[in-house]
Each structure stands twice: as C-alpha cells, then as structure tokens.
Design brief:
7 strands, CBS-domain, 2 domains, 63% helix, four-stranded mixed sheet, single chain
Length: 299
C-alpha cells in the first residue's frame, strides 16, 4: 500500500512541476484564440505557480513518507536509507526532469490537458495562496503586470508559413517613415505651372499617370497636384491643394490619413524635408506595394 501511494505522490509531483513550467513558458495568445475561458485562469499566473509549488512540495513530502513506510514494513528498519535514495531518484527523474522537459517543449498542450487539474488545485490551495501572496508582495519591488501582446507573441502565432511573412511585413512596415517609402522627387514626373495646356497634354499622354505634382519656379516648390481626368475636362489646368507630410512621419500614420482623405480626393502625398522643401511623393499604391514587396522578397 505504501508503494502505491508513493508512486501516486511521484505522479502528482510530476504533474505539479510540469504545470509550473508550462504556465511560465506557454504562449498565452494561442490560449486566448482557442478558448477564452482558459485565459481567465491564466490571468492568475502567479497563483497558478504558487499552487504548483505547494503541490510539488506536498507531493515530495508524502512520497518520502510513503516509500519509507513501504521499505520499513517490507524489508525492515535497516532499509530506511535505501528508501530515501529510491524516493529521491524517482522524484528527480519522474517528478522533476521528465515532466519539466515535456512541459517546456509543449507548454500549450500541457496547459490544455491539465487545465481542470490546475483549476481544482488552485481553488483547493487558494487560502494558502492568498497568505503567501500577502507575505511575498511587500517584499517584491516589481509591479504586477497584465498579460501583454508582444511582437514575438504575434509572429509565433502565425508559425512559419505565408501568414508569418505577412505578419512580419506588417510589423516592420509600422516602423517605417515617409522618407523610407517615398519616391524621390527626381524620379517623378512633375509639371511646371507655366507649361501651356498642349505641352501638359503630351506629357500626360506619354507617361499615362493619373496624378502629377505641379511646381512653381523650382521643382522642390510643389504648389499643387493635377489629376489627368480633371485636365481632360478643364484644360485651363485645375490645380488641387497638395497634401503635405513630413519625411519623418510614420508611414502608418500617413497611410491612415490618406485612407480617411480618399473621399476628399487625397491620393497623393508630397513629402517635405526639415526645410519645407519637397523631396518626394507617396501614393496609397506605393505604401501597399511596400508591404507586398516585403512578402515577395522573402519568397
């Protein structure tokens, strides 16, 4: 009987010690997307770890007592030392190393399958957990933090397939500025305000773009934008007010503003340097191409 309870205690120790590792190592975002209710318990991560530690220590004590009882009643008092060695080896191998190694490799799997086990013992040990937290909190200088989504969490969620490439491109895209994505002004087709309509017509026909920046005197002095369709109906050159952005502005902010301004005809942004001189242009197509281009380059 002592052997049975000793083995049972070692099994419980393994479940507790593995659960401690799983709670520390698991990716909480995967749990959130699969089953939200399981995240409710995970929000009490500190309590889960304490419950696992309490269970581990109680299991070790109980296993030592059970094996000692078995060896003494079966072989005599001279085998007490052997019982300690036997219990220690079983505890280290099957109660610590093996379950921790499995939980470290498959933390979400462990947490999913032992959720009810953890929830029960978290409830059972709740009075002791409460007392321990009251003792530990004044000694700890680190403030309790809520679970937060990190870049690595998000990338790990998508694995290594095509979705991961898209996620990585979007995350890297968010750190870019207008200067990183813009088309330099010297590579764009700009129109002098003083050009006659016939000259503008030939340029529009040659290049086929839908929008052109208009400059006055100097190419870095952009005063407006013309749409090819406007020119067809208003040969007198209808100039629209340009949308200016700083070269240091985050591209995600530029993209959001241009999306909101589409109804007002904002499809092209003129990028300005610190001296308020035009250095490039941006379109929604350029910004989207930046994301798509990143994905293609990884292929």
């Amino acid at each position: 009987m002592g052997l049975f309870f000793g083995v049972l205690a070692i099994i419980l120790q393994g479940l507790f010690s593995g659960s401690e590792t799983a709670v520390i190592r698991l990716n909480w975002l995967r749990i959130l997307l699969r089953r939200k209710k399981k995240l409710d318990l995970l929000q009490k991560r500190e309590g889960l770890i304490l419950a696992s530690l309490i269970g581990t220590n109680l299991s070790v004590v109980f296993a030592s007592f059970a094996f000692s009882y078995f060896f003494v009643t079966t072989f005599g008092e001279g085998f007490v030392v052997l019982s300690v060695i036997f219990a220690t080896l079983l505890s280290l191998i099957f109660g610590e190393f093996l379950p921790k190694a499995i939980a470290k490799e498959y933390p979400e799997f462990w947490y999913d399958h032992l959720y009810s086990f953890l929830a029960f013992f978290h409830w059972l040990f709740s009075p002791f957990i409460f007392l321990l937290q009251k003792v530990v909190q004044p000694l700890s200088q680190e403030k309790r933090r809520e679970l937060k989504l990190t870049r690595d969490d998000l990338l790990s969620l998508f694995g290594k397939g095509g979705h991961a490439k898209i996620a990585r491109a979007v995350l890297e895209f968010s750190s870019l500025t207008a200067k990183d994505v813009m088309i330099p002004l010297k590579l764009t087709v700009t129109l002098n305000k003083e050009l006659p309509p016939i000259a503008i017509y030939h340029i529009l026909k040659e290049y086929g773009y839908s929008r052109y920046p208009i400059y006055e005197k100097r190419k870095d002095n952009i005063i407006g934008v013309i749409h090819a369709k406007d020119f067809l109906f208003y040969p007198s050159l209808k100039i629209r007010e340009p949308y200016f952005v700083s070269e240091e502005k985050r591209i995600k902010e530029v993209f959001a503003e241009m999306r909101r301004g589409q109804d007002k005809g904002i499809h092209l942004a003129v990028v300005l340097d610190r001296n308020k001189k035009a250095v490039g242009i941006l379109t929604l197509e350029d910004i989207l191409e930046e994301i798509v281009g990143e994905i293609r380059s990884e292929d």
